[in-house]
């Protein structure tokens, strides 16, 4: 504990069943009283977007629904143009991690008219204020000011963000997650669990991130299988949502690692859903890093109430029915070298407890093909 440590207080969090109904109250302290709602193309069918519009009532707002399941730099640029046209406003991000990540880029680029999602100036001005309403429990994107989007030309994930677009308020309403399909519950929830585990093992871990991560793992290990079994279990949904939120705070402080480095590459280059990509390689990466991350994995095992962290992750994967060989996910063996190179070059991989060479990542991928 001799190292210097600086931790910025997290933003405001409002948690509870039905709390989204208080949304106008949460907007009142912000300097802008107009709202651009940023959401993904499929969420309106769930009824959530219409409900948000009803709750906003007389608050002047428009809805921007041009966000895909893996948001691209082009989508962020289009959203920023839409916000510049609308004028200064609060950006209200509603949806899963895709909508929240895209909204951060939109809020930042709209305030920097010469910037694009692939070309941000070295000293950007502050972005527009942002409020986040997550409708999935996984990414923790409501806890930080950076987003992960896809550059379709380079076929890789890129990071865009700034401290000014960290959500001023995170509105965590577990009722909004009750309609999630089992597959989405599994994918997003496993992502959150890996956030906790990789945060504990990260080179950037510190006592604050470790506290967030340990509690997140405890809550997710206890309630994620239950939420997957019974999507109407509000208590389980609530605990998974808050656990994912805590894991988001952890990763914001510590960074992640190789599981996410590989996951980003698999999603960008092979189109595999993020949580499914993580499940394909998590156990093998943990085994690869077992010696260097021994203390972190021991903490993980205690948080999960078991003796071995890797075996526990295998059990969670089985309960969620989420793990598949890469060949079953449509990945050709010829694509593995490019995926390995992308994973090794990903910024999150630099936080891994054991830094891999391209050849070692390729070997890991081949073992799960």
What's this entry about, in short?
The protein is α/β, with parallel strands linked by helices and 369 residues long.
Describe this structure in words.
- With 369 residues, the protein is an alpha/beta fold.
- The protein folds into two domains: 12-176, 3-Layer(aba) Sandwich (Rossmann fold); 180-368, Dehydroquinate synthase-like, alpha domain (Up-down Bundle), CATH 1.20.1090.
- It is 48% helix and 11% strand.
- The chain contains 13 helices and eight strands.
- The protein has helices at residues 23-27, 48-56, 73-86, 97-110, 182-201, 207-229, 234-254, 258-270, 274-288, 294-304, 309-320, 336-345, 358-367, and strands spanning 12-15, 35-38, 61-64, 90-95, 130-134, 146-151, 156-161, 169-172.
- Strands 1-8-5-4-2-3 form a six-stranded parallel beta sheet, sandwiched between helices. The protein has a two-stranded antiparallel sheet with strand order 6-7.
- Helix 5 packs antiparallel against helix 6, helix 8 (258-270) packs across helix 12 and helix 9 (274-288) packs antiparallel against helix 11 (309-320).
- The longest helix is centred in the middle third of the chain and has 23 residues, at 207-229.
- The protein is globular.
- The N and C termini lie far apart (42 Å).
- The model has no long low-confidence stretch (mean pLDDT 95).
């Amino acid at each position: 504990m001799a190292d210097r440590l600086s931790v910025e207080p997290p933003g405001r969090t409002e948690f509870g069943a039905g709390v989204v109904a208080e949304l106008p109250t949460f907007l009142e302290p912000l300097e802008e009283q107009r709202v651009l709602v940023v959401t993904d193309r499929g969420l309106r069918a769930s009824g959530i977007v219409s409900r948000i519009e009803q709750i906003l009532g007389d608050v002047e707002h428009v809805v921007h629904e041009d966000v895909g399941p893996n948001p691209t730099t082009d989508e962020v640029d289009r959203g920023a143009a839409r916000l510049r046209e609308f004028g200064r406003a609060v950006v209200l991000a509603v949806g899963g991690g895709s909508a929240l990540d895209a909204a951060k880029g939109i809020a930042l680029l709209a305030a920097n008219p010469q910037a694009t999602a692939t070309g941000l100036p070295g000293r950007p001005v502050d972005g527009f204020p942002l409020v986040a309403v997550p409708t999935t429990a996984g990414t923790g994107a409501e806890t930080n000011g950076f987003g992960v989007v896809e550059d379709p030309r380079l076929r890789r994930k890129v990071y865009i963000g700034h401290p000014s677009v960290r959500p001023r308020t995170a509105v965590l309403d577990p009722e909004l997650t009750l309609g999630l399909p089992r597959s989405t519950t599994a994918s997003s929830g496993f992502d959150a669990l890996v956030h906790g585990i990789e945060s504990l093992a990260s080179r950037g871990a510190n006592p604050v991130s470790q506290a967030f991560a340990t509690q997140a793992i405890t809550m997710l290990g206890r309630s994620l299988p239950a939420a997957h079994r019974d999507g109407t279990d509000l208590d389980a949904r609530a605990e998974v949502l808050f656990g994912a939120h805590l894991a988001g705070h952890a990763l914001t402080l510590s960074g992640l690692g190789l599981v996410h480095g590989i996951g980003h590459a698999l999603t960008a280059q092979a189109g595999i859903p993020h949580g499914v990509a993580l499940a394909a390689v998590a156990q093998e990466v943990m085994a690869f890093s077992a010696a260097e991350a021994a203390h972190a994995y021991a903490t993980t095992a205690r948080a999960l109430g078991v003796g071995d962290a890797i075996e526990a992750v295998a059990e969670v994967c089985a309960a969620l029915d989420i793990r598949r060989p890469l060949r079953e996910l449509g990945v050709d063996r010829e694509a593995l070298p490019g995926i390995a190179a992308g994973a090794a070059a990903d910024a999150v991989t630099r936080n891994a407890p054991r830094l891999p060479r391209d050849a070692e990542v390729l070997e890991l991928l081949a073992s799960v093909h």
